[in-house]
Hints:
heterodimer; A: alpha/beta; Rossmann fold; 8-stranded mixed beta sheet; globular; B: alpha+beta; Bifunctional carbon monoxide dehydrogenase/acetyl-coa synthase(codh/acs), Chain M, domain 3; 2 domains; 4-stranded mixed beta sheet
Amino acid sequence: MIIAVSGKGGTGKTLVSSLLIKSLIDKDMDILAIDADPDSNLPEALGIEVDRTVGDIREELKKDTAEGNIPPEVNKWDILDYKIMESIIETPEFDLLVMGRPEGSGCYCAVNNILRKIIERLSSNYDIIVIDTEAGLEHLSRRTTQNVDLMLVVTDPSKRGILTAQRIEELSEDLEITFKKQYLILNRVKTGNEDELLEEVNKIGLEIVGIIHEDELIESYDREGTPLINLPDDSQAFTSILKITEVLKEI
Amino acid sequence: MFEDIPVDVSPMHEGERIRAANMFVELAGPKSMGAELIQVADDVEDGDLQVVGPELSDMTEGEIYPLGISVKIQGEKLEKELEGVIERRIHELSNYVKGFMHLNQRDQIWCRVSKEAKEAGFKLVDFARALSILLKEDFPLIEKISVTIFTDESEVESFLETAKAAYDYRDSRARELSDEDVDVFYGCTMCQSFAPSHVCVVTPDRTALCGAINWFDCRAAAKMDPEGPIFEIEKGDVLDSTKGEYSNVNTIVAEKSQGETDRVFLHSLFEYPHTSCGCFEAVAFYIPELDGIGIVSRDFRGETPLGIPFSTMAGQCSGGKQVEGFVGLSLEYMRSPKFLQADGAYERIIWLPKEIKESVKEYIPGELYDKIPTEEEAESIKDIKKFLRVNEHPIRERLKQSKESIETEVEPDSDISQLEEDYEIEDNDAPVAYLPQMSVPGSDGVRIILKNAKVYAEKVIIKKEQK
């Protein structure tokens, strides 16, 4: 099952992704986390240090090719396959693949095409894949999330966050990308004004699957750079994500 | 056939990855060493399977061990040249074994054995057996086969030496592989999303314009993804071996470019040059005043002697258009023995950025190297001309030999005329250009095609457009 977490930048995609991974950890399941946001910090949220991303591999290959360092008989599929595997960070609980920086100048059609195939094949080895998508809508137009089973759209109470959430819903419809399920998650909700907010977000037409309240603890984790995955099991944020995991079991 | 092997052996396990969390041991890979090698030999003992060094049962869970896979084959019709091709199959066939992961090739292999396979009683000798059966099945030419698996560190080390020598030998052969040696070229339409009529033709002597894929990559890609954008082109009859024109290349390009382009010269920038997508690493451009060719790469930030930067030039000849006098190319193509061979190869090159010049130094004929100016020696056509004269570049012979004294005057489009200052060609001693057909690239501007034209001018002035 492929789960993607999307939304406007800064609305809490990474919080949701990291807690989702925490809630899914199970020794009988192979989990792959993919950080697809060049500007994201999923690795930090998961408490992992990354030294090489897919973006770095792409640049390395380009450099090696230009300099003529690749033996003529060795093909680039195999090289990329190996390097991607090498870049995966493996923990006992889950694996992490970081897409990293966007392309530099020049042509990346060929490399990206190969990478897409390799990552598709790689993904087929996992029971659950959680993608922290790039902020905004581009993952839809580039169809990098078209095989996603479950799309979780995150928004905070801000007008812009809600607008992006709405656009994600509309664009996926326009592009005829059909997810098995698409849900909305509200983040940073102030206690007391839920009703007003709910009225606003109900217009988007997406079922709300979770509400995460404003939390002093999350703020302090963010401030101090403490991995969000270490949030206590009884924190409100984590318990609301656990409910989502329940919903997943029904899909 | 595989009944002695305690795990399933089938193509359905291809692409299997074993997570660190599920693995029993890792073999070779980035944290250790390893290699695989297939050799044709004369005294192969069929079915001989050996493990030299610790077996899986002697290994400790979670550890990393070196690995060597040595396969010897014998058969009446087996030739040494086939070793590489057969060796390439090890990757796919090894992955048929459930619980055995195999990545990459040569001395860059990376394997893992799953805990599950270990618990089922799987041993390395079983892997050797599966591999020997699968290889024999795949290549009926193999009459006898033996497989030796090395896990002992010093054994792997010495095996690695043997293997590397074999790879070097093969690479030197592969570098010699030329367009004449193969019947199949490859076409790539990956860039058609933005250059809808562009078809890249990839041959042993000509890598794709983007520099990303060569003939060997295409061969792998066409196999891995048969429905994908890379496909085989039977080259057909040779129409012109110097220019690089092939009957079936023309046919397929016409078909895949929706009729936009129906003739392609692979090794020339005149008449019917290869089209350009927009991805190319460099552009070769004709400098009519000197009857020479300049080259500029994407990374070059300044202006070319034509007075325009790479980006402007790229804009004029990209998008799948066939623009005579301009061709997109990869830097690797500059290392090809057929590099613009129809146009005179490096003898025709009269300007290129220093960075490229250095990176292809060993491919530029030694006596020419100091005669080709870079941005450090020449910023304008005038500078180039002076440099060529002082350094006695052979292109001057070419100019002298040309009897026709023809100059062309063309009304350039607005892009090309972005000159800082009015540029004048004062010399009228040399023929500027004589071509049966010459066109000026234009994006928004006017496209002028001169067919068998003779245009005489005492002076050519190109002015910056007044807006």
